[in-house]
Design goal:
With 122 residues, this protein is mostly helical. It has one domain. It is built from three helices and two strands; from the N terminus they run ββααα. Strands 1-2 form a two-stranded antiparallel ribbon. A hairpin with a 6-residue loop joins strand 1 and strand 2. Helix 1 packs antiparallel against helix 3. The N and C termini lie far apart (38 Å). Bound molecules: zinc ion. Zinc ion (ZN) binds next to helix 1.
Length: 122
């Protein structure tokens, strides 16, 4: 099926930041068909690996295994309506991790920055 007008296909493979997560949604039905999630880097320090893994598990299971925060996203109906109108799906899926969670944006960003500063990041 051709993509909806106004929606350009994403070039693939696309480089992803370690904190980036993208949902793949059927243009017509609004059904979630998959996720594009970064892999946990083998050589990263524990706090980076933990943060990436917790974030991945949170979207796959609908809640964070570390802090319990739930995945927040529009409903299938909202996604279907957005697709029918040629718009991007309603809302960006995200998990509002608690500030002490290894998956929280600031916690994992700090861990990645420490890894870069130590010269270990690729
Ligand atoms: Zn969390």
């Amino acid at each position: 099926m051709a993509p909806s007008p106004g929606l350009a296909p994403t070039p693939w493979p696309a480089p992803m930041a370690l904190t980036e997560q993208a949902a793949v949604v059927d243009d017509v039905t609004g059904e979630l068909v998959g996720w594009c999630l970064p892999a946990t880097p083998d050589g990263a320090p524990h706090d980076v690996r933990e943060g990436v893994t917790v974030r991945r598990l949170a979207v796959l299971h609908g809640h964070c295994p570390a802090c319990g925060a739930a995945l927040v996203w529009g409903s299938r109906r909202e996604r279907r309506r957005a697709a029918a109108g040629g718009r991007a799906p309603a809302g960006v899926p995200h998990v509002p991790h608690r500030p002490t969670c290894p998956g929280h944006d600031q916690v994992i960003d700090a861990a990645i920055a420490r890894w870069h500063a130590a010269g270990g990041a690729p």
